[in-house]
Amino acid sequence: MTPLLSVGTTEIPLDIRHSPRARHLRIVVRPGSVVAVAPSFVTRRRIMAYVESKRHWIRDKVESIGRRPLLGEPERFITGARVQFRGRALRLSVSSAELQTPTLRFASAFHVRVPRSIGGAAREAMVRERVMSWLIDRARRDVEDWVRRHGRRLGVQPTRIRIGNQKTLWGSCSARGVISLNWRLIGAPKAVFEYVVVHELCHLLERGHDARFWTLVESVLPDYRRRREWLKGRGIAVS
Question: What are phi and psi for residue 155, nearest 5 degrees?
């Protein structure tokens, strides 16, 4: 089982690799994982002690990665802003009307109406809450649909599905069978989001990222490499 390394409030997979070509212990921090590379003769106990001694350095590297650009919400929630949804940047339109609560209509763009009595910063905050609520709801619906479909095929069922605001991961699967997905994935193409869900479902059967794991992913999504490629360079990764 792949150990998890606690970095601040986040648990990140620690991938331990022995290499006959390695001359000394070294640590590589990647988006969503920490890799410890060691010579063949180095024991796991010594590797873990070395990782522990480098905990502060690892934390700094993880935080640096977390500051890279992500898919996310627009800076302002005003008319003309662009909202990322399923691989496209769609226009946001905001208007006022005689109503009590804000409404959102989606038709190739986001049309939000807010009470005429609300203005200024409160108006923008209300638009943000309505748009974000809509996006997170759509993300959850997509995830639940893929979990039903692909979980049945794999013969697995997570104990819980969580849609969160992770800073260093697109998705993760805990030892207790909880699958966590980053809400920002709703901004990615649908096929990419589906790949992340399948990736985590496969971790219910294979905890590591060895050949058996990738064979399992490929059995569900033969083109997973193309989908995975889209996520590269966007700051965080899939664990």
Answer: 75, 35
| Residue 18 near residue 42 (C-beta atoms within 8 A) | yes
How many CB atoms within 10 Å of residue 196? Answer: 25
Give the residue from 189, 183, 152 showing the smallest Cα distance to 170: 183
Residue 24 lies in a domain: yes
Of 100, 117, 138, which residue sits at a domain end? Answer: 138
157-213 pLDDT, tens digit each: 999 999 988 776 889 898 899 999 999 999 999 999 999 999 999 999 998 888 899
| Shared-domain flag, residues 99 and 42 | no
Q: 163 with 139: CB under 8 angstroms?
A: yes
The structure's pTM equals 0.70
Domains contained in the chain, number: 3
Both 50 and 129 in one domain: the answer is no
Query: Could you list the residue range(s) of the whole structural domain that residue 152 is in?
Result: 141-238
For tokens 């996520």, what's the residue?
231
